[in-house]
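Two folds, back to back.
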Amino acid sequence: MSSTSVPANPVAHNVSMILPKLNDADSDIRYMTLNDLLTMLNSGNPTFIAHDYTLCCKIVDGLLHTLADTHGDVQNMAIKCLGPFVIKAPETILCPTIEKVSNIKTEGSLDISIPALGLMRIVVALPHPVPGVSRSQKVNEAYGAISKALIPRVVGRVVVPLKENKGHPAPPKGMLQEELETGNDSNSLDLLAEVARCFGPMLQEVEVQALEEMTLKVLESEKCGTVMKKKAVAALSALAPFFSESLLAHHVSTTIEKLRASHLTSQQRRLYITVYGSLARSIPQKFGPYLKTLAPFVLGPLSDMELKQQEAAEADADGERDVALEEVREAAFIAIEGFLQACPSDMRSYKKDVLEAATRFLKYEPNVADDDDEEMEEDEPAEDEFDVDEDFEEETGFEDEDDVSWKVRRCSAKALSALIGTLDPNDPALFGQIAPALIARFKEKEESVRGEVITTLAYLITKTGSIETRDTASEYQHVIPQSKKRRRGFSESLGADLHAQQALMNGYASPSTPPPTDTGTKGLAKINPDIIKGAAKLLKTSTPQTKEVVLILLKDMVSAQRGGLSEHAGLVIDPVVDALSSAPGGGANIAGNKLRTEALALLKVVAEMHSSKVLEPHLARVVPALVAAAKDRYAKASSEAFGTIECFIKALTPPRSAASKTQNGQYLAQLYQVVTERISASETDTEVRQKAVQALGLLIGRTSGAAGQKLLSQDSRFAGQQLIADRLKNELTRLPCVRAVDTIAVLAQSKNDFKPDFVGSVALELAAQLRKASRGLRGASLSALRMLAVNEASRSCLDDKGVKEIVGLLIPLLQTEDLHMMSPALVVLAAFAKDKPSLVATPQVIKGICGIVTSPISGAALDALITCVEAMGHAGAGKDLMKALLDVGVQGDTDVTGQVIGTLLVSGQSSVSVDLQAFIKELRSQSDESKRCLSLSVLGEAGLRMGTNFPLRPDSFTTYFSDPSEKVKLAAAVALGRAGAGNVKTYLPKILSVMGQGGGYHLLHSVKELLQHSTAEDDIKPYAAELWSNIIASGQAEDNKVVGAECIGRLAIIDPQAYLPQLQSFLQDNNAAIRGMVISALRYVFSDTDVSYNVNLQSTIVPMQEAMLADADLDNKRLSLSTFNSALHNKPDLILPHLSTLLPYAMEATVPRPELIREVAMGPFKHKIDDGLEIRKSAFETLYALLESPASRQRLDIVAFYDRIAAGIADEHEIKILCCLVLSKLLVIAPAESTRRLDSLSQYFRPVLAFKPKDTAVKQELEKLAEQAKAVIKVSVSFNKALGNEGGESSGRAWRDYFEWVKKDFPLYVKQAQEEEIRDR
């Protein structure tokens, strides 16, 4: 019978028809019959055999017969049938089936593992409990069968006595008992582990205890082999999550007694230590407290005393080695690694012992005479540690084949790596003991050990480098940060835009390694020469695998120090170039390709972080090697080569190479040649061509001006520009060409830097791209067009026809639906208006501007609009625009329209045909509230821009504070403040005078506007004391707190010596409103000041943060967390060194407080209100912010951090969403901890997805549930892709079951998440 004859919807009769064939003499018939039975069981209705007990008995008999078959294929197929059968069979047949399968006789040639394999298939198939989901009747029935039939068969006794069992015979000898007697592995331990994974949450304590006892007996048995004992360790690990506290305590005490026994063998000792390591990984929270007692037993084999005892024993035994003891040490280091990773806080008191043991055995080479070793270290010069001609490939093994000491050394290096992860980056042990010990082992001859040593050292260096809180682009620190004040001048506005981009692309004139500032960086600087010497020798003599990790080490060191090779560049660069040139190429040579890629990556960071003076002596060797790598047929290496070439182009061109004059020209010519060749070659890979285009744009841009043209000929530059213009029309290279044009436009210094017609043709092509569907292409094209327009050198190359076409193509962008596109478009129009106003001030552009002012825009978008309008006014083209704006009038947003009209009024002066008096008259004569508000806004903006020339006095505005309209009052207050910002000496005394008479709310707005827009800080200081007292007095009212906080924050910025101490003292005030205002004020201080202000905060910021975070008022608690977040983001240098003091406040705030949850009656319904929700949201936002920088991540206790984030999944909607985002980051940042958390995360995720809303749920609630389901599924897909598919320990049963359920019940959300992940990449 073939599977094609199996009916689509089989019934019980179809099954009964094929059962006789299971006894057929032909094994093929038996096999195919089982295959058909499997198909029927899988495709049949869930109950199609459930009511036919007789048929089920026949199926069981048939399966038992085939399980005892002499053909392995038939047995395997019978095992496969057991799973679907027990799902479809009635509950009453489960126990008999389990008993009969477990009692199959394993005689003759029959595989003795068949019973256990069959039972495992049954256990896995049965419905089992799922965390967060109520247990169904079928789950309870399945557990009943496991408890009644399976566990007694495994252990050989009835564990849970049942009334109905009285008088029944005792169960036969247990499966594990048989294994203990024979020593044969029948996979019973695997079965035990599967029972624990599937039914662990339902197992009773006596059952867990019985299974644990049997497992321990296997560990203690002399008959059981190594494989069985390893399985026993895995079984204990699976059982451990279900140990009660008393059982775990008993287990630990029992094993301790065993370890203390005098007759303990090395093998037993190794097994118990392995169990401890496994338990630490399995149940870190429960097992951690026992480490205080257990750690000494694990550290014992690694002690100096035991090492000396071993040496003495070997001497007595004529040098015979105890290999078993080496295995104990290997197991001890593996266990310690697990302790440090899973329970770092519990191992804190043993870090010194771990450090001594790891460094002791890192150099443990019993085959090498100690005397010789010491003599070599002390007497020989450093350069002779390993000879240049030494061939590591021939000496990667030991003469003694039985020597396994290399495993101990490798595990000691791994333990050191885990220890480094728990230490503070400034811990003196890192560079006082660990780093020297690792460097001393560069001479290690065993390949795997040497690689682990170097990798551990690289990790140590990376950890140290991450404490640098400066931005990675610190070379651009000389760029003046954009002021928070309103920009007053058009030329200043556009000039700052261009100069910032030029500074960003030009880089820095002479990069140098910053001086070390703390213990970690000083230690790294000290060992730098030793690392370089050792690495250089390894690069000359070692294997490709070692060379690769050495290159990674050097790259990490250069990145961490932001340089560091200035005095030893020759030692590194020459062997790196040799490695790059000599590594075998070709797509099939994986090792060679990886080596070349790492060599190029190292050269890249060397060029990026060292001055041209350091690089120039080596260019004769480096540049030809880069040229050869750029031509490599392996795309990844070629692509990496062009990234490196870009860095060398920056190093070889002004301003970095200003002192080199023209000597770098020959090298730039070589780079130009290879770049253009690779762009033009038809066989070049697309990614490589795109990288080459970017490099060409940078080369042309950096050789602009008189100095640059001496390095690269004008003909070459023009030919390169033409190549970019041609490639701009190609779909595959369009985006990199757009970015190349952007670079060229930013760096151009004169009209002569451009090939004739280049600017016109590319500008039109860029403008045409603004209609394309790709947002990335449109954004890049608009950015490049903006730079072409802002830079006068390129703008002067555009003719009227080109400008007219570009303006026409920009008009569709003048809409507030997309501010990111609108703002640059307005800047382009502003630049064109400077020279060609008539082409810009068209009816279409004016209509677009009038449409913009109807929306309430702010920030960069408003600045761009005002810049454009100001440009048109200065150019005398504002008449029609003014008329159109006046027609819009009160239909637009009052504040935006007022600022735009005020700007145009001042910049256009007489050309706009409207003067200031018209608006003054309008204000005084109009009764319409909206028109008066608009006039006030116009006059305020005019006052800001006219300064002391503004004819109105403060009384012209304060008069309207008595107006019956609240809107007019507020508009007058804002206008007063803006006008005051232009003339502080006249306006501020009047504001203070009126403030003393009342009207605090409106005058606070005036003060806020004055402080926000004024640049005359010296004029403000004489009035600061009076301002301060008035703001403190007025700001305590509920409506005034926010504005008052901003005002006193800005005063503290203006005069920090006077007001920061007062802010600190106010944090102790008894009035919660004052404390809250001060906390908010500090947020403005942190966000609106640059690095130069830090000196004022250095001594007070941490005490102030502690005082804020300890505030008991709920509103202040939330504000303090928000301010702490602001400090982390804006003042990391001051906050991160004290994170261990401040972070506990935020961690504590994430815990829900039951006393803050109250019940409110709303009609017949009762509604719960959580007053602590906003505090928790702020706390979780702070935790999210901590993952943004490597410096803060290094200072986190990831285990405790993960605990709070996982708990947040069970919190309210907003916190669930935020925690899903944090988990996505933790997946990348802490993959090891994420792997350990997979099963527990599934327990948090499942209830979120399984929640069913009530029938009366409103639309908003349903939308929230859908949003959080999408967030949970998205992070689940990411975790499963990264960790869940690896099998083994990385994805446990709970996670696999959870994700299968997600795929089955939420296929649409899973598909969306997978598609989003692809798009994000």
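---
second:
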Amino acid sequence: MPPNNPPRAVRQESHPASTSASASASLDDLSIASAPVGGRRGPPITVTSLTSVKSHGTSTGSALGRVPSYNKELLIEIVSCRNLIPCSKSGFSDPYVKIRLGKIDKHKTSCIEKTLNPCFLPKHKNTYILRSMPSDVYAKKGIELVVKNHGNNAFSFSNDDIGVAKVSADQLYGATGQEMEFELHPPTFSKLFRPGDKAGFITIRVREATLGDKDEIKDRSNVIKKVRSKIKSPRAVESKTGVSGLDFVDMDEKILLVEIVSCRQLLGSDKDGSSDPYVKVKLGPNYIHRTEIMHKTLNPKFTLKQRNTFVIDCSISELFGFHGIGIKVKDWDRGVGGNDNLGTVQIPPEDLYLCQTKEYHLTSPPGKLEDAGFITLKTQEITEQERDNLKKGLLSMVKKPPISLPPMLGAQKKKREGPTDTTLLVEVVSCKNLRPGIGIDMSVDPFVMVFDGEHEVHRTDSVANNQNPIYTVGNGGVFLLDISKEQFEKQEKGLSFKIRDWDPLGGEELGQVTVPPKDILENKGERMLLKLLPPDRSKLNPGALFGSAAGALGSVGGAMVGGVGQVGGSAVGLVGKGVKGLGNTGVGKFAKTATKPMSSAVQKKGGAVFNGVKAGGGALVSGVRAGAGAINQFNPLVSKRAEDDYGYITIRCREATSYDKKFMKFAKERRGDFLGCRQNNEFIFHTKGGISSLLPPRLSIKERSGPDAGVEKFLVRPEPDPKRSAITKYLSEKEIEDEALKPSREWLYLGSGITGRLYVEILGCDGLPNMDTIGKTDSFALVVFEDAFGKTDVIDDCLSPKWMPWSRRAFMFSMEHPSSDLRVGIFDFDKMGHNDLIGRVTVPISHLRPDTEYVMSYHLYEDAVTPERLPQGTVTLRVRVEYGSPKQVVMANLKPPVEQFINFQNPRHLAMAQLVVEGKTDMVSYGIGTLTMHIAELTSYKSVTYYITDAIISLLLWRGQVPLFGKFKIPLHSMIAFYAAITFVERPTLWFSYFWFGNAWLLLAIQNWRNNAPNAWNRTTPFARILMMMALDKAAGPEIIPADFQKAEAVEYEEYMAERVRKAEEAALKRYEENNKLWAEHQKETAELDQVGETDISTKKSSLADYASPFKSILYPIQQLLYTICYYLRIVRNIYLWDEQYYAAFLTAASIVIGLVFYVLPWSFILRWTGRLVAWLVFGPHMKLVDVFYYSKLKEATEEEEAKKLTEYYKNLKESAEKNAQVARIRTEEAVKQKSVKEILFGEFVERVPVIKCERFIDLPLYNSYSKKYVPPAEEPNVTHLGGQGLIGTMIPEIRSIKDQKDAKAKKDAEEEAKAKKAAKVKRV
């Protein structure tokens, strides 16, 4: 059990006398107001805090006087607990309290279900009269308050100890009726507690019992027995908590008005991911109320219009007999199917009678693993007249304050007293090179405590087993501090940072540092690297003397700490011997008195071991921690460090902004949507409108009359045009295609870039496979671009879906990098289970021109790496790009691309994004198939030889290569090759220049080949046009490509090249087979010669191991190496084939510049005179004079000088390495911190989106694609701004899209204000 501890805080009302009284005042000077039983508070108590009276568990005497000679009976009232540890998977506990004297349980309260902050009332049996003799109480060193968890459900552990608080006899008999709060100490052996967890606090009130108290408790007991005998329902006799006794005997009858306020984060039950929720209320076996239906929402807010109020007008016994009311949230379904259950919760009667507003966690329906969400209820008491008016519909909502509950006591962190005018944002960035621990493994679990003066204002979480911890928002590395600048500047100390090692027995302090107030206030968010100072040894436990003794015992000290937690192990015996030896040598009186309880501890097991150590050797255990220096002298890792090297801590601070305060509040509560950043992350499947009838509509009809008689028309999905509902409900196939090509009305604005904008519209799909057993495919598209994603509506039962202009299909992305690719995936929506990928496509956008509207169709494939890819239908997109500055677009590629990541709140959504970005085939995980595909990809590069062969033949035979006038081609490349050959023969020194010229020539020749190919969609932006964009900041005009442009020529050319490759491969394969056949015959003849003289005729053994694949440890590194080679080969291929056209242009320009520089330089002159200078200066006869007058006179360096030089060299090397490591560490810290912030804002599941093209196959548009000049629509579309996931800034990074909007608005307001001032000035003139 834990040692005695004084109460952490004492509740005092705000009264002048409470601050002026002296801590040393006698009992006669204290004005005490008794508090009656039942928790009703008396007038303010004008006494000083009892925390000034400390007790150390002595066996005789009292801090307030001697032991009372008469039998003083005490009334102990359990008031409340707070911040208890959750003991169930639901995140709550079912706590109750035991009062224990010695080893006997004297009293037990009732259990309060599902709470971490219980408030005990008389109905919970929270009072007990201690009638034991004071001498007996002092002999047993006070009482213990044991808080336990009642394991009354399948999700909770059975009656686990939550925490124990020790109340000394001094504190009991010196109490005056005030509330005292004690810290709960966690049990030694518990699976509930993790490093950094705290058990919580308990508040009690103790005073001398009066005769009225005894009578009141006796009367209450009689009432309970009387009510028990009258209640026939067994459910009413035995409460839900399983604790005998009725909980409602102290309550008055009430008429309750219950208001269903709202629900949030409900399950999506419909195909579109949303629900149509309503709430049903059940009392006993009957439903007593039902709300109206809220359509298409997962976060409904109910009002009087939705019938959200109802009255509970029944007896207390009936309400408690039914265990309160049952709440069921259901989803209304159209058609013949039943309504789905979204979640249930049972509201206990105690919560109803407290008349409060409270949020409850819904229990998921059977078979559902997802979180069911929350529901908020508000309860208030009404009169009979108000109830009658409510029945007549005349009641206006009467708002009464709820019953006041006892507030929580003694905050863990004491706030600054007095007025505050500034809020600081303080961040503990990281610690570096902390000292190792004193345990066997020498690990540390450091956490940081922050003090403002003597008051602790913040504490981070511990980072397990790390001497270089990084603290983020998620583990408490950032906090807000309210201060008064004037008072803060006058302080001697600013903020103190103390680093401690977490340990169940109280970890040691690893270092500390104090930052002056001036440095805190002047810091504007810059990093402050501070050297840690030694811990303050003056405040250590006196038991630190035992630390040196434990260090002298060597490993005994470490074994002792481990032995405390064991059950009667040999280590405990070592500890006992150590204590006995210390007592014999006269270390101190306390050590001698510890020998007896220690020896008793050795004889017992379990808790008795720990009790013995606590009572007699507790100071020894703390002494080992406090005397860490004595033990560390036996630690070789610690002995190598300098004595004053305690590591470093990095902090930064600045004045908090309104954004910082909002974010910190959101990070603490994790509720709602922070500034709308999660709207696009909800993945709600929008299917607008609905089917009004119970039966589904017909998918197609035939007109019987009119101009369209006999024409088959199809149902428009997801809904008809809201402006033309009757006309557009059914349309013909031609009409649907025409409607789909019209401009979109609704756009989603996504992304965080500033380089340009990408406009994407998903027009439709054709020829999709049927993915459903019943019905047809339910299609929707998922679009991913950089740090944002968008999703279309779902179109049911259609293999050729078309998204209409009024549906969700249009996305506007802010572009960060011009070389980024657009990725589109088509999925089949499944209500149950995962959504199936139909196909995906990667659309390069770097070739697209501004002011051009591209309508492109692509084949859908399951991935971009499998050679035998089969099309899964087609998708049609309408794409357009806009750039603010063409020069900025080109120059943006000079910066290294920043890795883009997208966060999701649900692993199912992450799986969908992974399919869109990476495809179905996993090329990273180990597999024989994956290894084979890597090898096949590498062998596929031999097809390049066929193109090289064609190029060499064309070059040598002076065939036409570059068109000059129409179809006439001149052999320009042959001319260049001839000139280079004849000049190189005459001037061989030009080889380096010609190497770079050749590289540029190769790139330009490949681009010329691509741009002269028949397929217009395989062309790239010419090199001259890219130079014009960079030099003149001028973009090219619109690109006009008709549908089926040069289709016949392109198909013929592709078939010709494919046939050439096929024939060459067949010839190579035939030669390979013939060589293998000859080799096999040769091996057969050799084997026959080897078998001559063989006499072993036994049956040969065979094993599966002869045919098994090699071990993964051998093949997996090879697979990873092949993957890396394939990855970089793809990048090189994409650059030289101008798929990455901007990088290819930069490489071409750089090659030309380098070649020109080396071509102009007189290499013959430079090389000839360089050789002459080296020969004359190094090998000349003058070197004899150098030897005589200089080299021979040099003294040979001594060993000390050599060592000094070597030390200086390694010192400089170490400094350089530390600088590089510091830069890398800062990058790592910022990445970890940004990841933590993004997890809070957007979700914890992350997918990486590549910027550089790294796929094996590049998809080209089909021949029916076309482009035309963009014409703005007549009607301005509606744009919804959702932004992206990009962050900017440090400490608490801001969402970039939101910040850009604010900056743009501020800039616009400033311009308008300047214009207004200028106009006013002109008017005055």
